[in-house]
Amino acid sequence: MHGPVSIAWLLVALCALTGAYCLLRMRSGVEEQRRAAGGEALMGFGMAAMAVPAAVFTPPGWAWPVYAAVFGAAALRALWAARGAPHHLHHLVGSAAMVYMAVAMAVSPHAAHHGHGGTGVPLLTGALLLYFAGYVLFSGARLVPAPAPAGGTGPTGGGGPAHWGDRPELARACRLSMGIGMVAMLLTM
């Protein structure tokens, strides 16, 4: 990633903390939530590693094709999962964006390592920026607290409090922070 070093480190911290939280969410008692959290942890840690400033660490040339292969596999998994649950399409777009950024860095290593812009295809970068900016706005609006239902005392409407890994607002906050990170990374391309 190129851009100011302090912003890059903030992005590394945001993505790494999000990835770590998603690992903790994998302790959920719900199978689907564990799977989603695992994919989101991979995305968070991958984004953190990709955002490390080039002045600190320049990945070897073979790293970008490895990134592309890992996130290509994640995209195929999300595509398979989207057959039964359309919400996995967002994971597909996120994984495809990571493949795109890795390929752009592999194709243009000089620009990527020396902090020059111009990597990637402007039309595709713009389309991804629009998607993730819209996603961030939509996700942020969904985090606005709603009035509690009259039937229950816990956050899930049941008799007791939900396990912290099963709380939907925390999962939404996790996805929101990764969306913000993706916008920041795409802006630097």
Low-confidence stretches: 111-116, 152-157
Instruction: Give the averaged pLDDT, no decimals.
Output: 84
Main sheet? Answer: none
- Roughly how many Å apart are the termini? 8 Å
Can you offer a commentary on this structure?
The protein has 189 residues and is mainly α. 68% of the residues lie in helices and 0% in strands. The chain has helices spanning 5-25, 31-51, 63-81, 88-107, 109-114, 122-142, 168-187. Helix 1 (5-25) packs antiparallel against helix 2, helix 2 (31-51) packs parallel to helix 4 and helix 2 (31-51) runs parallel beside helix 7. It is globular. The chain starts with a helix and ends with a helix. Residues 111-116 and 152-157 have low confidence and may be disordered.
Features:
189 residues, mainly alpha
Short description:
The protein is mostly helical and 189 residues long.
Which SSEs are present, and which pair or pack?
Layout: H1 5-25, H2 31-51, H3 63-81, H4 88-107, H5 109-114, H6 122-142, H7 168-187
Helix pairs in contact: 1-2, 1-7, 2-4, 2-7, 3-4, 6-7
